[in-house]
Amino acid sequence: MAGSLAWYLMESEAEIVADAEAGEPLIGDGVTAGIVRIGDTVRRPVRPFTAAVQAYLAHLHEAGFTGAPVPLGVDEQGREVLSYVPGDVPRLPLPPETAGDDVLIALAGLIRRLHEASAGWVPPPDAVWGRLPGAAPPPPGPDGEPELVSHRDYCPGNVVFRAGLPAALIDFDLAKPTTRIYDIVNAMWWWAPLRDPRDRAPAFADLDVPRRVAIFADAYGMTERLRHLFVPTAVFVARRYHQSARAAAEADPVFRRLWEQGARDELPRAEAWLEQAGPMIAARLEGGVV
To answer: What span, in angstroms and rounded, lies between the C-alpha atoms of 88 and 242?
Structure first.
């Protein structure tokens, strides 16, 4: 997925280019064309950040993290090859069972294991990382300097479920050096979710978001420092998503369609909602789940 924008791309609009002999076309992120499954592998176009992501995935595999694809190099057609990750990926509208507390708890555990496996890994000095079209380097945020490489895009289409719970992650296109709290905020952006009730899936519309953030925080084992940083980082990230979405819409026709389909209205509403709900989320994070 390409950050928060991919939420607005319906499955039927994905531009997939593959013929029958090349393998089974996969819907993928709706932004990257040409993703196919061949047996127990997935083939994807090679892009500038592919080498860095493959190095990161190789580290995760060596560190014992089993919730990500295993990089398998490049095939004879010049495509990136990854192991196929079995399971179910939720589609819009998200079904009610994905709104349960058990989903939040499992996702928190999965991300914590990812962070532990990522900690201490140093990317290659010439690493190139993915970003949205037209995106400028972000200004300094309240979360501070990057402390590890991580996924950074926990939209539902990137979370693989097994037995009804999150079990693995796919599509590491936006992986790059980041902070734990940014990664947590991104997960909560999708799964709390941190957005105006009008713009949530029906199953999520009336949920107690501050309580859900606290459930995730407890399951992850968020420190006092991370809890203190959560709300200012969330407000900063919402504003950044809005700015990045506008820039991407100006630079790329795919993202322009996503912007026009709803992002231009929903993202400013998310900013406003977070400004209003921030104190309640902070209070629940400090007081625990009740």
So the answer is: 29
Task: Return the structure tokens found at 232.
Answer: 């200012």
Q: How many CB atoms lie within 10 A of CB 67?
A: 20
Give, in order, the Cα–Cα distances in Å from 123 to each of 63, 99, 116, 137, 249.
15, 35, 16, 19, 30
Please, what is the end-to-end C-alpha distance for the chain in angstroms?
34
Q: Are 38 and 288 in contact (CB under 8 A)?
A: no
The Cα-based distances of 282 to 197, 211, 288 in angstroms read: 19, 10, 10
Buried b (16+ CB within 10 A) or exposed e, 28-60: bbbbbbbbbeeeebbbbeeeebbbbbbebbebb
Helix (H, G, I), strand (E, B) or coil at 41: strand
Q: What is the mean pLDDT of residues 183-187?
A: 98
**Residues 66-95: tens digit of each pLDDT:** 999 999 999 999 999 999 999 999 987 889
* Torsion (CA) 56, 8, 108, 217 in degrees, nearest 10: 120
Cβ-proximal residues to 195 (8 Å cutoff; 6+ apart), any chain: 189, 266, 269, 270, 273
In whole angstroms, give the CA distance from residue 31 to residue 18: 14
User: pLDDT tens digit string along 126-166?
Assistant: 999 998 888 778 788 999 999 999 999 999 999 999 999 99
Q: Give the chain's domains with CATH numbers.
A: 3-83 (no CATH), 96-287 (3.90.1200.10)
Q: What is the pLDDT of residues 2-41, one digit of tens each?
A: 343 333 222 322 333 334 345 777 765 455 668 999 999 9
pTM of this prediction? 0.89
Q: Which of 178, 174, 132, 144 is nearest to 157 (CA)?
A: 174
